[in-house]
């Protein structure tokens, strides 16, 4: 069966959520949004592209930091309204300097920071 972007269900803003996961250890690195153009560029280049809701523009992950995500595979869920993108992450995925955006854990009513920063955002941005 041939894939068509038309088979995906985008929200009223033309976006679809994308869960970004490390292809080797399945660590969730981040959640972002893609529009049709971001999906097309991701497929054609093999590098993750997203749509920034705050900046209202397309962006290539790592275009500023150099911490790109090389796409290994793309899945979509049973409702075709969410993507799972498995990547090889260079450097950190999080703009705060951590490998994953999910570096904080709620435990016993407190926040515990997991891991260490892999880069200094002040030096990158």
Layout of secondary structure:
Elements: E1 16-22, E2 28-34, H1 36-45, E3 49-52, E4 57-60, E5 69-76, E6 83-89, E7 104-107, E8 110-113, H2 121-124
Parallel strand pairs: 1-6
Antiparallel strand pairs: 1-2, 3-4, 5-6, 7-8
Q: And the CATH topology?
A: Ubiquitin-like (UB roll)
| Tally of DSSP helical segments | 2
Terminal CA distance reads 43 Å
Number of domains: 1
Helix content: 10-25%
Mean pLDDT: 97
Radius of gyration (CA) equals: 15 Å
The shape, in one word, is globular
Structural class: mainly beta
Proportion of residues in extended strands: 35-45%
Poorly predicted residue ranges:
none
If classified by CATH, what would the architecture be? Roll
Q: State the order of secondary-structure elements, H for helix, E for strand.
A: EEHEEEEEEH
Strand order of the largest sheet: 2-1-6-5
**CATH superfamily placement:** Phosphoribosyl-AMP cyclohydrolase
Largest sheet, if any?
4 strands, mixed
What is the number of beta strands? Answer: 8
- CATH class group: Alpha Beta
Structure commentary:
The structure is a single chain. This protein has 125 residues and is mainly beta. It has a single domain (5-124), classed as Ubiquitin-like (UB roll) (Roll), CATH 3.10.20.810. The protein is 11% helix and 36% strand. It is built from two helices and eight strands. It has helices at 36-45, 121-124, and strands spanning 16-22, 28-34, 49-52, 57-60, 69-76, 83-89, 104-107, 110-113. The strands form three sheets. It has a four-stranded mixed β-sheet with strand order 2-1-6-5, with helices on one face. A hairpin with a 6-residue loop joins strand 5 (69-76) and strand 6. The radius of gyration is 15 Å and the shape is globular. It starts with 15 loop residues before the first strand and ends with a helix.
């Amino acid at each position: 069966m041939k894939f068509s972007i038309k088979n995906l269900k985008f929200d009223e803003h033309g976006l679809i959520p994308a869960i970004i996961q490390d292809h080797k250890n399945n660590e969730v690195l981040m959640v972002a949004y893609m529009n049709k153009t971001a999906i097309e560029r991701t497929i054609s280049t093999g590098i993750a592209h997203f749509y920034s809701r705050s900046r209202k523009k397309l962006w290539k992950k790592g275009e500023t930091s150099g911490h790109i995500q090389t796409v290994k595979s793309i899945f979509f869920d049973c409702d075709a309204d969410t993507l799972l993108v498995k990547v090889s992450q260079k450097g950190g995925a999080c703009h705060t300097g951590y490998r994953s955006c999910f570096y904080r854990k709620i435990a016993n009513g407190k926040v515990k920071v997991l891991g260490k920063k892999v880069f200094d955002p002040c030096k990158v941005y």
